[in-house]
Amino acid sequence: MSEARTYGYYPGCSGMGTSMEYERSTRAVCEALGIKLVELEDWSCCGSTPAHTVDHVLSAALSGRNLSIAESMGLDTVITPCPSCLTNLKTATHRMENPEFKSKVDKLLDKPAPGGVAVKSVLQVIFEDVGPDAIREKVVRPLDGLALAPYYGCLMNRPPEVMQFDDPENPTSMDEILKALGADVVPYGLKVECCGASHGIAQKDVVTTLSGRLLDLAYAEKAVAMVTACPLCQMNLDLRQGQINSANKTNYKMPIFYYTQLLGIALGLPEKELGFDKLAVNPAPVLKAIQEPSHAAS
């Protein structure tokens, strides 16, 4: 990325609560990489997972309101760290290409939803607009020797006709970023399999089974940690790891990082800005293995 570019920024509701460490580390690394974030004024919930199960028009209107805010602020692209928010915003944009559907959405809004605001994930912008090569040049604290399992979850890249980023079955963008940081990326064959999502509330056994499989493979591939870009995936694998161990008779103590946290530490950002203290599984053993910043690097 030759010069800083401005993006509309949609933090999402979880960034204000359960995934504060993701929100904090996202802002920190974007600043370090020259990505200027302009938070949408008076943004509101996009509907996340539940809205579309009730009414597709309502779900699109919730996202449409936020896109209208971006348009009124003169922003042509909105980015978000959360795959659930990303899915809602992009699905709304996709469905509103149908004039009949859009007319129904517009009736629920104060003004018609815009048609020209692009939606991307923060991961996509970091990968495409900054790029692994530029990131590699900025690394001062490489993750040399760390065996990491990149886990994308089932929403970030699918369905491909809506998400339009990376391979839907074998995405590699996060792999390439981690490699640029010096990490050893393990061959993780379940990188887009579901963790159980929000079933942890209603059917805990779904999460303990599906997330258990994810941890099993990461452990079998000798990863020291898993890396994700999704707040819900991170919660299931991290916060519920004790429940998974109890249900499956395992004893995993595998840290589950957001990719932005590891990107931040490799760029030499202060650990307090990256929210490691919010992780349920103690990340200290992995963090201690990362070498101290090189003052010779620029």
From TrEMBL:
It comes from the Bacteria. The keyword Oxidoreductase applies. Residues 8-90, 151-238 form the Cysteine-rich domain. GO terms for molecular function: oxidoreductase activity. The keyword Nucleotide-binding does not apply. Gene3D superfamilies: 1.20.1050.140. Keywords: Oxidoreductase. Signal peptide: none annotated. Transmembrane segments: none annotated. This is Heterodisulfide reductase subunit B. It comes from Oceanidesulfovibrio marinus.
